[in-house]
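Structure, all two chains, one model.
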Amino acid sequence: MKNKESPLHPLDQAVALQPIDQGRWQGTTSQTYANMVGPFGGTTGATLLQGALSHNELLGEPVSLTVNFAAPVADGNFEVVVRPLRTNRNSQHWWAEMVQGGQVVAFATAVTARRRDTWEQTEAAFPDVPLASDLPAFTRDAAPPWTRNYDMRFVDGELLGEPDKDYPSRSRVWMRDQPSRPLDYVSLSALCDAFFPRIYIRRPKLVPIGTVSLTTYFHAGGEQLASVGSDHILGVARANHFGKGFFDQSAEVWSRGGALLATTHQVVYFKE
Amino acid sequence: MKNKESPLHPLDQAVALQPIDQGRWQGTTSQTYANMVGPFGGTTGATLLQGALSHNELLGEPVSLTVNFAAPVADGNFEVVVRPLRTNRNSQHWWAEMVQGGQVVAFATAVTARRRDTWEQTEAAFPDVPLASDLPAFTRDAAPPWTRNYDMRFVDGELLGEPDKDYPSRSRVWMRDQPSRPLDYVSLSALCDAFFPRIYIRRPKLVPIGTVSLTTYFHAGGEQLASVGSDHILGVARANHFGKGFFDQSAEVWSRGGALLATTHQVVYFKE
């Protein structure tokens, strides 16, 4: 797929998998998506999803994905091992694990399914916000490398800013891959982990944090995602509770046209 | 543990596991918690959690639990197979599966951790609602048997009622085990699946549904849960999106005193 005319997008490089065996691939962490320690979790999750989507027994499209970050991922090579746990007529349950040095460092479960046309309603409300083109792009020299792979335009709730009186942990942010890339499940799964940890919004100081478990529900079909193209998507993220070393956060992810593409939830470790 | 003076609570009977081998138990579905087809998913998830909590290598307390319902659970015996996937200094990642006839019918991943005292803040708002004691208990003769193991007192968003104009899929409901039972992680995990499917609130007609994946984040420590005792807890549940055969729902679960005990999310299959 790679050729001189169209080199792989950095995200596609980061999640690239070389087949070793049936359901078993090798990959390498990407310096482009480096985080404070190891790679950005969004690419780790996207790589595990990529494994399931590359499996020759795949049925349907992603409906849900839960990624657990079991241990620090070291820079360098890893193996991805994927297997269908259960295949039904119209849905399938998946296991995917990332292994380094014989140890599981991250793993995921996923559900894929054939989507059908049914009654549709969106209950969450698409917010009234300025367009991405009317907002400045986020920049922060001290931010880790992965952030430079996203064009983020904050409506409010910027990193380490003044917390909003009414919604102190909320951010509303337009986001897209940078350089731009057509939206698909792999990139959307990574974007769902691109929200800064809510504790840095609610209490604007940096402390060590790490996502423990991340769950994303995909509401859009593949064609609908493709129709978003490389447009910005809007994320609305907030926390529910901080305490005893953990907090949770939830977000809705919208197309510019007001389609709810995904909802995503995570629980995050924090120090102090 | 069972004796004539204090017979096991029906929930403890439903999740009871007889050791077969290291990390391997046998259990039996409970008619008391029967659903339309097979057992109530809340007890299936609680049984998988019970497996992890019974494991002799357990470290800490539950922080997150994701249960996938891979296939219908048949009435009768099952095996539960549990193993730690990764043990860190203060946290642990778990795998648990329920097997019938050599096939996985449900599985879970979980994170347990040693909780530490840290900064605490709750951002979600505890709602201003009447007390459980001022509300009638939910009854519905046609409802499946499991519902009779819960004392539910709806503030609003009752099953198959008139949808609220502003919050058409929302329910606010006081809940507790019936007969009453001191709250712990096992019972809380089941209560987190006791919210009726939001599609029956938003569009009050019965269609076939089934939870596909359920994720719960536990915010309360074990002592805090124990201090709730057998009091009612308040659930606030709503959907974000229905379409293409699936919908999601999210809920906060509160103590009467306004402590956020858990947040819980699920994606549900529906027909039509």
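The mean pLDDT of chain A is 96.
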